[in-house]
Amino acid sequence: MVAGHGNLMDAGPKSRSERRREDTRRKLMRAAYEIIADRGLEGLVIQEITQFADVGYGTFYNHFPSKDAVVDAVIESALLRILEISDRLGEIMPDPVEAFGMDMRICLHGSRTDRVWGWFLIRSTLSRGQRLRLGIADSLKQSIEEGVAAGHFKCDDIEMARHTIGGLILLGTINLVSVTMPDDYEGRLVTTALKSLGISAAKIESVLAKPHPELNLPPFLEAIDDL
Amino acid sequence: MVAGHGNLMDAGPKSRSERRREDTRRKLMRAAYEIIADRGLEGLVIQEITQFADVGYGTFYNHFPSKDAVVDAVIESALLRILEISDRLGEIMPDPVEAFGMDMRICLHGSRTDRVWGWFLIRSTLSRGQRLRLGIADSLKQSIEEGVAAGHFKCDDIEMARHTIGGLILLGTINLVSVTMPDDYEGRLVTTALKSLGISAAKIESVLAKPHPELNLPPFLEAIDDL
After folding, report:
1. Which long-range contacts (CB under 8 A, 24 or more apart) does A205-212 make?
2. CATH code given to domain A75-209
3. Whole-model pTM?
């Protein structure tokens, strides 16, 4: 997506009609995103999306062939954003345990500062469509596998380590969007997760002491022409 | 509820109108339950419940003052059912670690064998109404506290132990209702949970070797006049 954002600028100025087309597509995706965050994706209909986006019903089909297509585009976009954060942290933090802990902190903190994002994650993770949940699960499993292979993490059952940490993130996200949680909440969740992977208390302390790095990502659902 | 079930029989035969009244109340609760399981409780309206229950719209108000009242009654009923299982296990299993492990196994297995129940748990746990989630969290926290106080469980942060185990149950339930999981799945989740509480591998093995006990509970949403 970052490369895509670069390409967007490389492509030179866009015509007014191109910009308007992108703008409408973005509005439709943002509408689907906010409706899913508000009440989940079951029972969602195209008319609801176009009304929310303040776009004519017929216009929808100039951008997406079906309701599922816009939902898929939003979910894919969210998954890309999550994977992009992991990748970026992997680049800028040479210590994989620090990068893993920071990824979890940023993920949880994102739901504290943006409840729409948090609710979107919860509702799309828990819907019958499983793309986002399985995508996050795969990425988490891969990080744990790499950490175990490199000797950073200790664990007998990678699948269950993924469940433990995924469960902490999911329950943590629900609490962060529903209740006002204390400032150290994300840190305690990360501590619990890292401990379950055999990381020492001293190392955990140093992971939590790191400041949040500047990721310089474009706002979510803005760089949409990449999709 | 068990006592209530007894009272129900002690009260002697009911008149036809009493039975019909109870039957209608049950239908409305079951309708709300199934709709929540299907798509969550956001946007639920009374007409949807009465149509699903095949009951006249006006009849609804003979039983519940509002939509929230029927939803609350169903959620309270589900929470009572969950607590009742814990209490019953506490009575029939003298070893608290075995009772704790069995409770988690039964809870997970219930979602494998009855996906409507599993979806209901997920959707009502994750809705903005938090009664079920907080009720389960309290009960889980209390069990962990008792286990720590009695020297059975080891843990430095009870709140985070509850998060770890609650997260495993939540993610496990989502998997059990969405995908076909292997037969040993519940056992692996319980193993992970007990290990996080410092239980030895040998003890965990003996916990998992116990057969599911016969609980003799009335079917869910049948003994409704208790509420």
Report:
1. A206/A98, A207/A97, A207/A98, A207/A101, A207/A102, A208/A101, A208/A105, A210/A93, A210/A98, A210/A101, A210/A102, A212/A102, A212/A105, A212/A106, A212/A109
2. 1.10.357.10
3. 0.89
Q: Angle at the Cα of B208 (from B203 to B209), degrees rounded to 5?
A: 95
Residues in B closer than 8 angstroms to A192, CB to CB, are: 157, 160, 163-164
Mean pLDDT by 10 residues, chain A (227 residues): 45 81 93 92 90 95 95 94 94 94 96 94 83 93 95 95 97 94 96 96 95 86 58
Token match 């509408």: residue?
Answer: A31
What is the ipTM score, two decimals?
0.88
Query: Which residues of A touch chain B, with CB atoms under 8 Å apart?
Result: 38-40, 42-43, 122-123, 125-126, 128, 130, 133, 157, 159-160, 163-164, 166-172, 174, 178-179, 188-189, 191-192, 196
What residue spans in chain A does CATH classification 1.10.357.10 cover?
Answer: 75-209
